[in-house]
Amino acid sequence: MLSGIRVLELGGHTSAPFCGKLLAQYGAEVVKIEPPGTGDPARSQGPFAGDDPNPEKSLPFLYLNTGKRSITLDIKTATGRSLLRELLKDTDILVENHSPADSEALGLDYGTLARISPGIIAASITPFGLTGPYRDYPATDIGVFAYSGHLYHSGDSDREPLRNALDQSWYIAGANAATAILAALFRRLNSGRGQQVEVSAVECLATHLVQAVPYFNYMGAIKGRRPVRGSGFEELMPARDGYVVPSVQGSQPWSVVSDLIGLEELKDEKFATGSGRIEHGEELRELLVKGLAEWDRMPLFEASGERRLVFGMAQDAGDVFDCPHLEAREFFEQLDHPVAGAALYPGMGPKLSSAFDSENAPAPLLGQHNREILGGRLGVTDVELVSLRASGII
Amino acid sequence: MKNDYMTSDSLPLEGIRVVDLSRVFAMPYVGAHLADMGAEVIKVDTHHAAFVDTTRTLTGPYPDNVPGEDYWNRAGTFQTLNRGKESVTLDLRSERGMELLLDLIGISDIVLENFTPRVTRRFGLDYPHLKSVRPDLVLVSNTGYGHTGPWSDFGAMASALEPTHAAGAFMGYLERDENGRLVSSETPNKIGNSYTDFLACWSAQVAILAALYRRALSGQGVWIDLAMYQTGVSYFGAGLLDFAFNGRRSRRIGNRHEFMSPHGCYPCQGEDSWVVIAARDDEDWRSFCSAIGKPALVADPRFRDQLNRHRHQDSLDELITEWTIDRTQESVVAILNDAGIPAAPVLEAGQLLGDPHLRQRGLFEEVEHPEESGLGKREYLGRGWRLSESNPRIQGPAPDLGRDNEKVLVNLVGIQEEELETLKDNEVIGNRLLPTAAPNVVPLARQKELGWIADFRQDY
Fold first, then answer.
1. DSSP reduced 3-state for B84
2. In chain A, which among 129-158 make CB contacts under 8 A with chain B?
3. What ipTM was predicted for this assembly?
């Protein structure tokens, strides 16, 4: 869909790489510029394939960088910067996630970039954005979640707020960056002009609070974390082999729910209405635990779906790989990485009707495409490449 | 104060028409963002209560918890998710209603729908059919599990999907083992707040915009089969590869981190008040010790480097809690941020709305509602990104039910003005919900008792 669109990714860790991965999935040609030697800091982040801390075996890196090419370039050197300038001249999109101060120091501010490449769409992803009093605050994933108002809603109401371990804030920022970039790209078709894109991870997550914010500014109420009391419906509850989410949502009457779980006491009319379930919440919770103890997750989940109920179940990573539904949808794809080896990778979220112009490839080795890109695109000769390598620029 | 990015150019999606048949959270929010970007988004509503978008009626919140007479136009979450759209009511069970819908789709660019595949086919809203109506259509079919595969007819909702797509495998409180040490547990937890809806929302926008770009160049439309389960999994891939390569099924490490230490959420003075702290490296740790007035800790062999701090996190967390628990959230964050250590307050929505940084940047955008709505001026969440030239902005309030019936049906679709009356008489269109039954609102004090809300303030 985006074939012919050239993207430079000058960012490490998660947010800019996830944005680049999405653009690559839609067919853009994404070149990742990594610092020579260490490469993207995600390369030193575990877990590693086979628990071997090799920069080519970082699992977050392998996931976040499929379908891209990698060149190394020390953009702190004059030569490195002039090569970057040459690359920028025929680049449509730049995505980076340095701190605001660092990106200015590196000449990655929009003013400089637009002078080099007038039609460029240049995206900066930062925790707090490029303006405002917190602009230069350092932040980690948990801090972004906290500042955004989102963390307050995660976990149990009688305990501390709880984080998900997989750096979700940077994924959300990366997906929003891809949206903003594509909006600018679409606009460019008419205007002929590029523009600056600015993404704040904190703000991206804050926009999830479509209930909590109006709860406050419509009626002064503060929505909290998941209640630890009440009927247990819509919450994680123990079943025989793990956890499930029983649900009364949807258009089916209570009798369908109580029939499914199968416990005689649940069929009592007093549970048939929403207000009844509130009034008898504690009793209902006990009965629910008793009823669910007779069920394994998968049979309950499938039986619920067949009855047009919307139960969920807690799956782990292994369950997802074994999932017959995802298999039928050909979601996983086999990628063979020259160092880490072959494995099944989760594929694209949305499934598209039209044939795809892009072929997926495993994450690149550090500097794997130096010759192809610097030589092929910029005309740097093999002799010059040797000298650049010797001086540590690539 | 407004942000620096005032629109100085046409909006990106000017001239794009969207038919939004979707309900609840994920897809309506996509429609809202497309409207912010300048698209003309027509919400296909209905005045038959059994089929109306439930955010008009069930989700609330209502101003001061009072639904009011025309409650279906007044809910805050509905307003957030449907701002800037037009509303046309059409009873899709009627032949004429469906004809008019297809006529509208014939002159539109994008359709958003989130019926289950069974209903989609029954209404003839499947891609093969809609493609015959509008060959270059971009259609988003958003479902729990997608249009193919054994679970495709299952309904779904975000809060049940979240654990199903394995988010809970990477989230859980620590528990004490027999020696009193905090260790990983087998109990999953939830990010909550309808998380999966937003994964679908952001993924849909990327797909739609990529599709529009391609369509502009090739003239070809596309069908986006957006399964929320599958989309959810794609955000947790880094954890799933740990199974593919190493056979590990889960990682539930509380608020701790693989290598940063300390890394956690600590209680502050007052009720339900928290701060998060993360030390990225030894330098952060040394700054932390000075900032809390205990420079001697640097020399403590238990904490001398990341590896040792990681091993002694139980004692480390106790020590940090001793320092935070008697201080206000504000003072803890100020002390640590001044020292350059990543620390952040866990903000609740009231604090978020008042946050000076977010206010200065203009995250909240003010909308003026029609006088008769009684909603006045209110602020809504904008978006997490800005464009320097054609920056989106909320274009107006969410529409009253059927507000644009005449405009859409007469001016756009081109029916005779007289037919409007017939459509009203036949209850194909309408402006008042039928039957009308104001939602039962639960008083805030009772909601607090039930644990539905954490607290409430009279003087918000």
1. coil
2. 129, 131-134, 137-140, 142-157
3. 0.97
